Amino acid sequence: MSHFGRSGPPDIRDTFSLLVLNITFRTAADDLFPLFDRCGKVVDIFIPRDKRTGESRGFAFVRYKYADEAQMAVERLDGRNVDGRDIMVQFAKYGPNAERIHKGRIVEVFPKSRGRSRSYSPRRRYRDDYDRDYRRRSRSRERYYDRDRYRGKERDYRYRSRSRSLSPDYNHGRGRGREYDNPRSRSRSYDSASPARRSLSPRKSRSLSRSPSDRNESPRKRSPEWSPSLASLSPRRRPADSRSPSPNDSTDGY
DNA sequence: GTTGAGCGTT
Question: Region (Disordered) spans which residues (predicted)?
């Protein structure tokens, strides 16, 4: 996916990965290639996509053959406006070049064979570090996706995520926020007490005039080609099947 | 037709 015609990492021998952030969701690898190829030899471009929706996550990985060219790409393309949005180019943490990167900064990368390391300006990186620390709040949100995926609700993940972000004090005012981290407590809340959900989903009045099965069917298909994909990617699994054989399973067995 | 902090595929 998002490669130049090959599946998986083509040849990662001495490539240097760059992380391109803040790109649009419609930006493809083909759009980034002509831009990044100007700075040097681009080996591969990979854009992670969401497993559920299939769209890009808004960032890409550009692999360069040489480190100095990658460094130049960071200096030149960082902050460049691509498709109406300012992208952010920085060295990736994971990858074959992770060993040579120390805390997001290059330790020793300037092969003498190339001798083109004159474009390096450390003053620029200070701004990036400050900018990076400023926006650094949460680290991972895919975990929430995984947990919600097992619940069979893929539309509530965004709403709950926003509600948590919008009201962080609610977690603290509750005395113990650990209860919300516990899947058992959350399941119990959904079964017995969930006033917010009831107000937001007045299915009662709607079921009188419309059958619940009709809610499952959308009046207008958004993407016909995605319908079978979503059906096969995230089918409705039974709790016994989705549960893994772990000692915590005793809660499910009740 | 949608959102916007972050770190990756067979």
Answer: 113-135, 155-254
